[in-house]
Amino acid sequence: MNKFSVPIRYGVIGALVYATIGFISYMLYRQLFSSFMTQILFGIVVFGIGIFIPVFGGVTFRRAQGGSLSFKDAFLGVFIICAVSAVGSSVMTYVIPNIIDTEYPQKSMDLIQSTTRETMEKFGAPDEKIEEAMQRFKIENFKPGVVSTLKGYGISLIWGLVLSLIIAAFIRRNNEKIALPDDDMATSPTSS
I need a surface site. Which of 62, 97, 107, 123 has the fewest CB within 10 A? Predict the structure, then answer.
């Protein structure tokens, strides 16, 4: 059995979770992106899942290794989870707008653009700032190619690297036994 089979398993679970989230967000994009608050809440939930899976997988990995795990192994285990998990998200990011629904990029861009306009108007942004923001919306941002998908995966790996360092610092546990002080004082006669 591979030493890193637990992180690989949790990475595959993470990839499936991210692929499912990607597909659900595709199916429900009108509801998810119709309000600014919904976008924020959805982002928070996805962010929480993105932290939970590597932490839980890392702790499970430590348990599978007998309760002790060096920083190096903890880091590698959590990084494997992050790297494999990011594949699910990257695949769905490419597949949905390029293969499943080629009209999806335009629809989602229009919806997010109108939501952004409404939010900026609610906050009293000047018209020129609103138009400037609207000019930044490009269809290329909503329909990633292979290169931009790989770039996104690379950014996910950098995020995973940082997250892995932080999580590894908390889940590592060395097997070194701490020597207890001798119990000579309790057995030695005391002078009165």
Answer: 123
pLDDT for position 119: 84
Pair 163, 47: CB distance under 8 Å: no
Give tens-digit pLDDT for 162-179.
999 999 999 998 776 555
Domain that holds residue 66: 5-173
- 51 in a structural domain: yes
> Which residues have a Cβ under 8 Å from the Cβ of 10 and sit 6 or more positions away?
53, 54, 56, 57, 60, 61, 81, 85
Whole-angstrom Cα distance, residue 85 to residue 182?
Answer: 49
Q: DSSP character for 69?
A: B
Give the separation between CA 76 and CA 84, rounded to whole angstroms: 12
